[in-house]
């Protein structure tokens, strides 16, 4: 009973966070202006952008299978794809829940331990984070003036009032609180480590570690790198196609698309369901660097984000049905 209540509170918290983010972005936008931007779009380009988004899912399934292969398991591409799509549906409700759900789904259909699968997912996320950092570095050199201006206007200026109000005493108290928390966790963990419950944790951590080191054990490193490159090329292509679909952004270059891709990906990193609100705000803010009004930028961000949703939701529910009619194998603990 307590678990159900806590899950509901967790869901409502992030749902409220997404609503607040959307309200904050769109509070001064007129609906007619938003529709006007959407009417200007060339939906041929938008359609191709959606197709590239779907292609990413298949390539992600192929790449995940390379990591899973190191666990001495060989799930079919269909099962891996279905697990990822079910995970996407879960992420639309609660951020980051999809990573666990897709592991649990593949566990039910292929008897692969969830903790080991989760380790491979964490490895995937680390690789993608490194790719994002490399792209951000590329953007910094390709669009140094633009990137510097964006950081100065939207990060440093926002931090300055907070910095001015922070006294040395406040910083010292915060530091002591963090140190006290770390010490408390250390001594608590030391006392619990030899108890039966801790043995289960050790076993789970061992499985997680197997998944984490899968990057060093995989046999097809070249294919893994190729799939990773394809994934990010598809993301960039989708972004460029959305820009090309609108008159106000059709003149932007691939480097500009890369700049907005990096910003948009950072918007997805913030834990709101499906990136709602955070993605829209950061992309619209980035477009103001090109002289595009924030309200129009929100229309462009909406076109980019919401054009993917119908296909992803439809494919997600088809995957859910496919998983539900699959004969589940006994769960391996």
Number of domains: 1
Mean pLDDT, as a whole number? 77
Report the portion of residues in β strands: under 5%
The sequence of SSEs as H and E is: HHHHHHHHHHHHHHH
Helix and strand content put the structural class at mainly alpha
What is the CA-CA span between the terminal residues? 24 Å
Please work out how many helical segments DSSP would assign: 15
Share in helix: over 70%
Largest sheet, if any?
Answer: none
Number of strands: 0
For the CA atoms, what is the radius of gyration? Answer: 22 Å
Q: Give the overall shape, derived from the CA principal axes.
A: globular
Characterization of the model:
- This protein is an all-alpha fold and 333 residues long.
- It has one domain.
- Helix 6 crosses helix 9 and helix 13 packs across helix 14.
- The longest helix is centred in the middle third of the chain and has 29 residues.
- The radius of gyration is 22 Å and the shape is globular.
- About 5% of the residues have low confidence.
SSE inventory with pairings:
Blueprint: H1 2-26, H2 31-39, H3 43-68, H4 77-93, H5 97-110, H6 114-142, H7 144-165, H8 168-192, H9 196-212, H10 214-217, H11 221-244, H12 254-269, H13 278-287, H14 294-306, H15 309-324
List descriptors.
mainly alpha; single chain
Could you write a compact summary of the structure shown?
This protein is mainly α.
